[in-house]
Amino acid sequence: MATVAATDTVNIVINDVDLQVPKGELVVEAVKRLGHEIPIFCYHPRMKPVGMCRMCLVEVGFKQPDGSVRKMPKPQAGCTLPVSEGMVIYTDTEMVHRDRKGVLEFLLINHPLDCPVCDRGGECPLQNNTIFYGPSTSRYIDIKRHAPKAFPLSEYVTLDLERCIQCGRCVRFTEEISGDAQLAFRFRGAAMQPSTFKLTDFDSKFSGNVIEICPVGALTSSKYRFRARPWDLETSEGLCLECGNGCNVWLDHRAAKLVRVNGRTNEAINEEWTCDKGKFGHDYYNSSKRLTQPLRREGDRFVPVSWGEAYAEIAAHLGAKSAALVGSTVSNEGLFCLQKLFKDGFGSENIDHRWTRTLPAAGERVAKRHESSIASLEHKKTVLVFGADLANSQPIVHLRVRKGWFLNETRVVVAHSQTTDADSFANLLLSCKPGSLDDLAMGLERAVAEAQKTDVQGFASFKDTEKTTSVKESALREVAAMLLEGNASIVCTASIYNENKPVETLAALAKIAAATGAEFNVYAEGGNDEGAMALGVMTGRNTHEILQDCAMGDLNALWLVGADPLTLHPSRRLAEDALEAVPFLVYQGLLECEAMGYASIVLPMEAPGEHDGTYTNIEGRVQRMQQAVKNPGDGKPAWRVFSELLVRIKPGRPSFSAKEIMDEIAATHPAFAEATYDKLEKEGTPLKPVIENFYM
Amino acid sequence: MKGQAQMYRDVVKPLLAGFGITAKRLGRKKVTIQYPEELREQYPRTRWRHFLTRYDSGLERCIGCSLCAGACPARCIYVEAAENTDQERYSPGERYAVRYEINMLRCIFCGYCQDACPTGAIVLRKDFELANYERSQFLFTKEMLLEEYPGQNLEPHKGKMQGTIALKN
Amino acid sequence: MSDFLQLGSPNERPRAPRLDELDLKFSDQALAELDELYSHYPDKKSCILPGLWIAQREYGGYLNGEAIAEVAYHLKRSYAEVEGVATFYSMYNTVHAVGKHMIEVCTCLSCQVCGAYPVAEYLKKKLGVGFGETTEDGVFTLHEVECLNACDRAPVLQVGSSYHGPVDEKSIDALLENLRAQEESTVIQMANDIVKVQTGPLKSK
Predict the structure, then answer these.
(1) More confident residue, C198 or C10
(2) Helix and strand totals (H; E) in chain C
(3) Residue in A147, A187, A197 nearest the CB of C79
(4) What SS3 class is residue A584?
């Protein structure tokens, strides 16, 4: 945990090399500065050290005034020992090697040697450390501890108790990082088992991470079980688009099929974690319901057609009286080409990507949506989570807020009408009545105004606020005081548009933010929703109006780009009416779905990992995902379809690659100026802020 | 004259020498064999066609661990594993190979797979007649590789004649 | 603790009860004791051990899942964390229900030398149960324990919070008679005594 200021250093000696390291740094971290490595199991840089496995033993001594080194009589655990002035550390002595051998022999006493069938085999820290540091044989001849194999702790996590070396990483993860404390060590000694309460369901939104941090094969993925061995896999850098956080993941694939998703380190976004939606929610890549070729409706059935025929059909039917509704996994390139196709090709402005109950004005696209970067949230003094269930809609933001609370004493205030996961650690909980978030925001505005001794005319009294929201005056005043202490952040998500009077609520919050100097965020929700906002994919009629127009027969054609209104739109009835009434419906998507049943033309789309593309996450970070796997059928990336179709309607030069489109976007959209393929950074490039303040 | 002497030197003498060798060898034992009907016994460590073996209990030895595929320098082995259940048990333990394929066109018969196998499931034995007419026939599936009962291919080799034809001659 | 590695059937994976589904059983007195305990410690996490003693008393000497869940509910910890603590210590009865009286026979070195095994065998025969088992009438539970720190009185038994030793067959007969006659459960009595110590007046340092 190198969070200590670099100016405060101590002089130490590691393997006869003098160096300065930050004061208080752990030995196991300090030796990395010289490129040495200490074998570890239980230590994890993002969690508190416990010294359970004893694998990191080193010899430690101190310099005496006469220049000699006085060694401690016994080896020390490097993961719990902070460096101090004059410390002399040896990681490579005979004693250390002997100790490591001994520790490994002990760890392997009860560890079954079923590496050939273990899913961890080949990428197992215990295997690696045993090969590098361990004994070649075991002296243990008795019967090993036995337990039932492969117990499913949840739908996703399988526990093999025999293999557990009781390092406590999983237990600490659920306590310190995810915060649900679902796992604990039950019983003791050889019977100790990291498991859930009475072996009930492991009900966590981040359970997948314990699979990755388990240094043996005790916790393995139920979905990846026996699917492949590590040496069978190829891996590609990918992004998760299940929500808008833009987590970096490894897409592990075998024979062009995605078999597993693992977290990839990006300190700016997800550190190394993933949520369960991201880790296990990518089944659709290999789904049997994947669309593989363009289809045309003929009577009651679909017949396969070529892309050319499909294009011709679409070009013949779509015109100025057509509209498009976009889902959240279309890349920036796709969105841009869609805009171009509709504007230049069909002469229609009617495209939208928003699916919330209330659809704010089109001007929303330039609103303040992300003042705080995800990484900055852990250093805030106060975080006000307003009307958002972060663990569900923004899991990684949730982890950051919790990390700030856990490590940096961030005070977390949760204001919501429902119970959320953040309630369990919130310093202050403003639990209001359903549908009263707007009143709560106004009440808070009043509290801030009173604390600043400004005019409070026109505000509802605290009594009225308490009546409508059930939140007490004292609580509001407390929050106002917290916000006024500075370094605060107000976090909302686009889900606030599903509440009463969202515009007024947001305006009140924006005023609070301006008055207190807090940062204000209204994070987008879907995979690339932020990209769609930044590109302005919401011209002409909005989603609601488009569906209404379809139902009324005012629109001749509707194009659904990776979106199913029947599941996305709050009013299913309107969506049904619209799809029923519209004369020509194009459904472009990954999977067969209900809306497809209404379509005249069905186009297969490539999943995000099947083509090059960039995606913008909630904090406006543009990241690129390269092709990892191959499309199982004849699908095309969305941008290619739009671009090829545009050439049919309006002859010209089509776009040949995603890179070209990104250059075009950079040239036309000032926010994306730094986001071309040549300039994209490893951790993603943040969008350039264009308009500073919208709500005021 | 010159012609006769030359003819004797160039034709008759070599012929006689040749027949002489034939005559000399007539009484000795034959080196050649009638190949398709007879087969030579091979060296004990000859490595040819792969087999997947079984335990004496009849269960497959292969646990689908893919170590053979990892060790294979020609990358010609493909293994797909699945889980045993009590109702449907193929091998002891949790895991068995549901697909096991070797591309014999690629295989270089190095035997690394046999070395790598932790259960001794895959072995290279002495069946060397691997020629075929179609490329697709060289993709050996699990059904082709798996012996039907334990020790099936350890029976006396079909080409072993009288046990006397030695390669040493 | 014979069943510590029993994981149960994989197909039955029940959901842990939500907090609002719990059937809370703590008496008012227990809640008052808990409230008093909070003042002894810096945070509620520190109250897990005394909280479990209260639960052991309230739930009749046996910490079942509901008891553990109730402690977790009152202390605002996760179920798993409290269960981890409870199952760590052998004096919490978490594995199976116990009888009214728990007889713990020390079979450590000194007691062994002084004849702990014959005593244990006699008890087993007399009660008709083995170690870790409860008699059919639910009065006695027999346990084998490590050193009770009373070697001067070896062989020694612990029943509730009192030691009996040195014991022989005759004194065991008398002890069992006494215990049979005793109305109050020594298991609960012991828990109660410990809770009293825990919640006693704060000593100034």
Answers:
(1) C198
(2) 8, 5
(3) A197
(4) strand
Q: Is A362's pLDDT higher than 60?
A: no
pLDDT at residue C2, rounded to an integer: 35
Residues of C in contact with A174 (CB under 8 A): 80
DSSP label at residue A517: T
**What pLDDT was estimated at residue C13?**
74
Looking at chain B, which subunits does it touch, using at least 3 CB pairs closer than 8 Å as the criterion? Answer: A
Q: Where are the domains of chain B?
A: 1-30, 50-154
Helix extents (H) in A452-501: 462-469, 473-484
- Give the torsion through C-alpha atoms of A187, A193, A198, A200, to 10 deg: 170
CATH number of B50-154: 3.30.70.3270
Q: C160 is in which domain, residue-wise?
A: 101-184
Q: In this predicted model, what pLDDT tens digit does every residue of C76-118 receive, in sequence order?
A: 999 999 999 999 998 899 988 889 999 999 999 999 999 999 9
Distance from the Cα of C143 to chain A's closest Cα (Å) equals 17
A:91-130 residues touching chain B, CB 8 A cutoff: 114, 116-117, 121-122
Both tokens assigned to C64: 């079942």
Give yes or no: residues C118 and C64 share one domain: no
CB A206 within 8 A of CB A395: yes
- Closest C-alpha to A607, from A251, A338, A76: A251
Quote the pTM value: 0.90
In CATH terms, the fold of domain A9-106 is: Ubiquitin-like (UB roll) (3.10.20)
The count of domains in chain C is: 2
The CATH architecture to which A108-221 belongs is 2-Layer Sandwich (3.30)
- Per residue in A446-461, pLDDT tens? 999 999 988 888 888 8
Q: Which pLDDT band holds residue A1 (cuts at 50, 70, 90)?
A: very low
Pick from A117, A225, A255: CB nearest B65: A117
Of the candidates A52, A313, A292, A3, the one whose C-alpha atom is nearest the C-alpha of residue A170 is A52
Q: Name the interface residues of A facing C (CB cutoff 8 Å).
A: 145-148, 150-154, 159, 161, 171, 174-175, 180-188, 191, 193, 195-201, 203
User: pLDDT for A563-598, tens place per residue?
Assistant: 999 999 999 999 999 999 999 999 999 999 999 999
> Does A187 reach chain B within 8 Å, measured CB to CB?
no
Q: Looking at residue A368, what is its pLDDT?
A: 63
Q: In chain A, what residues touch B65 (CB-CB under 8 Å)?
A: 116-117, 121, 229
